[in-house]
Amino acid sequence: MEQASRKYSVFDVEVLKWELERIGVKALHVFTIWTHVLAHPDTEAHDVPGLPFAAIDMIKEKFKTLTSQVKDQETSADGTTTKLLIQLQGGQSVEAVIMRHDAGAGKYAGGPRQGGSRATLCVSSQVGCQMGCTFCATGTMGLKGNLSAGEIVEQLVHASQVTPIRNIVFMGMGEPLNNYKSVVEGIQIMTGRCFGLSPSHITVSTVGVIPRILSIANDLPGVNLALSLHAPTQELRCQIVPTAKAYPLHKLMAALNSYQTISRRRVLVEYVMLAGINDSDEVAHQLGTLLKDHNVTLNLIPYNPATSSDYKPTSQEDLTRFQKILRGVHGVRTTIRQEMGQDIAGACGQLVISQSVKQSPKLTDIEDMCSS
Ligand SMILES: C[S@@+](CC[C@H](N)C(=O)[O-])C[C@H]1O[C@@H](n2cnc3c(N)ncnc32)[C@H](O)[C@@H]1O
Ligand code: SF4
């Protein structure tokens, strides 16, 4: 977050490299600093052995090991989901959610599973969001700020202290492609030597910021794209997703084509199921016709009621019927998103920060409208 007296995170790589180079210290030291910080998260970056004095003084003055801290942590009764409330420099907060896919319901009841091999971390890229999707609680906040690359990476650092993380999804608060530079830098760090995550285990979810969809294929090769579509026609999409007016459906589908020409990757199409709005048989056929010739997996997301909207979730029966039309008639690979951690108010996704967490925050201070 931008503020006058801020210190940078040591994971704000471009700033750290630039400041090191400015005082004549090789940027190679970045890796040494990170390795030290990850091995000793409680010590300061300037304690790193072997750093030149000039670098130590500069780091003391301008950088912190971690600029954010976990203020609360809650795990679902079945042990599958852990939600971290993370306070940023300046007092605002975001949420990051750990989901353990191989922890069967009840199997790990009584506590979080340690050492889970397939854990996915859902990260936030912004505080709030300016896109205003009508079903999304985060959208009602407006945009409060962009996370720096360091603040994005720090969510991984915090989560890794709970359990090893294998996958990252940018499906928390915010529109990642509206904070493009930080998201790209953050992912480059996550897939670099220190964290070593595979690009194919990272997914960036967007509501459809068309110019950036084209950039991401070049800037983040191997990283997955998820596209939040929610409607098969321009008219219906405009009702649900206001930014569809600026980024119309025909241009979005053209951007999807261009992305896939460059990346050659299957895209996850997300579709929040809203009863009586976008879940009829007619809409299912329109969606099937739109998607059948694309290399996509359609992911139907059960709507999680948000206080800010009057939408109702589609029934289980209608969800299955919708899926059958897409699969059976149009041959579109279609999955239904499994909800996890409902007893702790959902997995990764929507949240509204109802107050600053400067004073003893509780997760109950947050209304989490997460799906997933
Ligand atoms: C919170 S968004 C963040 C990423 C990005 N801004 C986007 O829209 O794709 C992640 C996913 O959650 C979905 N979502 C938002 N509000 C929801 C709700 N109330 N119920 C279910 N899913 C929701 C979005 O449609 C999107 O697919
Ligand atoms: S769904 Fe995504 S783009 Fe839309 S308001 Fe929520 S966070 Fe923003």
TrEMBL record:
Residue ranges constituting the Radical SAM core domain according to the UniProt record: 115-343
Cofactor: [4Fe-4S] cluster
Keyword Glycoprotein in record: no
InterPro entries: Aldolase_TIM (IPR013785), Methyltransferase_A (IPR040072), RNA_MTrfase_RlmN (IPR027492), rRNA_lsu_MTrfase_RlmN/Cfr (IPR004383), rSAM (IPR007197), rSAM_sf (IPR058240)
One GO cellular component term noted in the UniProt record for this chain: cytoplasm
GO biological process: rRNA base methylation; tRNA methylation
Pfam families xrefs: Radical_SAM (PF04055)
Keyword annotations: 4Fe-4S, Cytoplasm, Iron, Iron-sulfur, Metal-binding, Methyltransferase, rRNA processing, S-adenosyl-L-methionine, Transferase
Transmembrane segments: none
Location (main, coarse): cytoplasm
Compartments in which it is found: Cytoplasm
Molecular function GO labels: 4 iron, 4 sulfur cluster binding; metal ion binding; RNA methyltransferase activity
Alphabetical list of NCBIfam families matching this protein: rRNA_mod_RlmN (TIGR00048)
Name by which UniProt lists this protein: Radical SAM core domain-containing protein
